[in-house]
Predict the structure.
Amino acid sequence: AQRVTQPEKLLSVFKGAPVELKCNYSYSGSPELFWYVQYSRQRLQLLLRHISRESIKGFTADLNKGETSFHLKKPFAQEEDSAMYYCAPYRLNRDDKIIFGKGTRLHILP
Amino acid sequence: NAGVMQNPRHLVRRRGQEARLRCSPMKGHSHVYWYRQLPEEGLKFMVYLQKENIIDESGMPKERFSAEFPKEGPSILRIQQVVRGDSAAYFCASSPGLRDNEQFFGPGTRLTVL
């Protein structure tokens, strides 16, 4: 069964400290992995996808196929990073729905 | 491009009434997805539609829920005889098609059933 696990419901981190949001997945085939973010009172939006290998707002995520993980990392947290983060495996070029994790609420402490 | 539009943004219904949620995809997008977010839960897929076709409705409850995406006009998610457990945020997303399936989300409709 296709499944994605975000073990932390809430993560509180001090400003300037490193951030790691965990995501593990169980998915047939070779999915693409996405991270979506929802800032307060804004719509859900794509943060980054692993195939682009880019850094968005200082965040990066490395796909580890051996551990089936796609953890989201940032070396120095900023207050504006406070938001809800969703990990989502997905198969591009297929008629597939996104399987979202339950999300992790990141709270940056001043 | 105005992005994905959803209306109403907030909808209050009494038990037993019908709820109609509308979603206008981004211009040029022919694929629409509906997701539900229950309090303290993540987003859960409900249904995937293309124009005039339901592609995947595996996440739709078997009764009372239906969805359509007509040739003209917005996609509609319809909930008949609403119950308190239907209270949730309902999100719509659209994508342009198979070659680029990044989904763009609407602001959501928050349904409250009294």
Remarks:
- The mean pLDDT of chain A is 86.
